[in-house]
Amino acid sequence: MSLHVAHHLLACPHCGRELVPLEQRWACDAGHSFDVARQGYLNLANGPEPANADTTAMLDARARVQAAGLFDFLSRGLDGAVPYTGVQTVLEVGAGTGHYLAQLIEARPPARGLALDVSRAAARRAAKAYHRVASVVADVWRGLPVREASIDVLLCIFAPRNPVEFARVLRPGGRAIVVTPAAAHLAELRQRYGLLGIEDDKRERLLERMAPHLVHEHTTTLKQTGTLSAEVLDDLIRMGPNAHHDPPRPTAPEEVRLAIDLTVFRAPPGSRAAKP
Ligand SMILES: C[S@@+](CC[C@H](N)C(=O)[O-])C[C@H]1O[C@@H](n2cnc3c(N)ncnc32)[C@H](O)[C@@H]1O
Predict the structure, then answer these.
(1) Cβ(39)–Cβ(127) under 8 Å?
(2) Which of 47, 61, 120, 183 could form a disulfide linkage to 235, CB 3.0–4.6 angstroms apart?
């Protein structure tokens, strides 16, 4: 069980006070208490799971795609963007399987990771991702149950963004790394199978939304092409929100183009006073 690595990082979703671990539950000193699930994660969500939470089938598909190495180029990009020294705490919001977070934490001992996702199925997986990664269920839109100025690096990879909360939980000078699909990402595949589109101005809108809260440092576009089997193509389509629309299944291998924007933001120095 890896939940203990979240000590001094979690805040009560009801009152914001620090949550401390007790036997099989975490509680704040106002008396709010949350049970640790049998599978090792902590559920701090205040409401029901929303419709866009990842399902077990989507997570299985994503785990197979990640295991096949298709997104290793993204892992390398993330590795290059996160320093090896001075990073003690990494939070991933919308962490899914916890794949990228676990890789970064494993390579940076004694750093600890916090995987946050609104899906309980995702939290179950992330709880097993790595022993220095803790897993929590929470909704990014309802505020992060994380202490102010406690996070060195925040990752948001193909997941919802809450810039106000990102700025609140980052320590001054901490980095947010946001990964989004570039316009060319899976363009042919999206056209052929009628998959969800990507807005032409996605990059500009991201910068606009983050600008009042975090400083844009740089954006890098990572690219990869490859010929994939029909099975991997099917997983690639069904590991994300397209799964909710039941698109046709590929029957033959095809070449795909992946193009991903990795954008780094910095929390301004002195923007938040770190709590003791
Ligand atoms: C496309 S997946 C990406 C998962 C992971 N970052 C990756 O790249 O492998 C998006 C994730 O965001 C989660 N998610 C969706 N809405 C959320 C919300 N409001 N709060 C927290 N997580 C959310 C989903 O459950 C899903 O695991």
Answers:
(1) yes
(2) 61
CATH number at residue 23: 3.40.50.150
Q: Which of 64, 72, 119 to mutate to test the pocket of ligand 1 (most atoms within 8 A of CB)?
A: 119
CA–CA distance, 226 with 70 (Å, rounded to integer): 8
32 located within any domain = yes
In this structure, is residue 276 part of a structural domain? Answer: no
Q: Give me the number of domains the chain comprises.
A: 1
pLDDT one-digit tens code per residue, 26-60 = 999 999 999 999 999 999 997 888 888 999 999 99
> Contact at 8 Å (CB) between 233 and 258?
no
Note whether residue 271 is domain-resident: no
Could you tell me the distance, in angstroms and rounded to a whole number, from the CA of residue 216 to the centre of ligand 1? 23
Site to probe by mutation for ligand 1, drawn from 60, 97, 158, 177 as the one with most ligand atoms within 8 Å of Cβ, is 158
Q: Enter the pTM of the model.
A: 0.95
Which of 15-24, 55-64, 265-274 is predicted with the least confidence, judged by mean pLDDT? 265-274
**C-alpha span between 243 and 42 (Å, rounded):** 27
Q: Which domain holds residue 177?
A: 3-266
The pLDDT, as a whole number, for residue 84 is 95
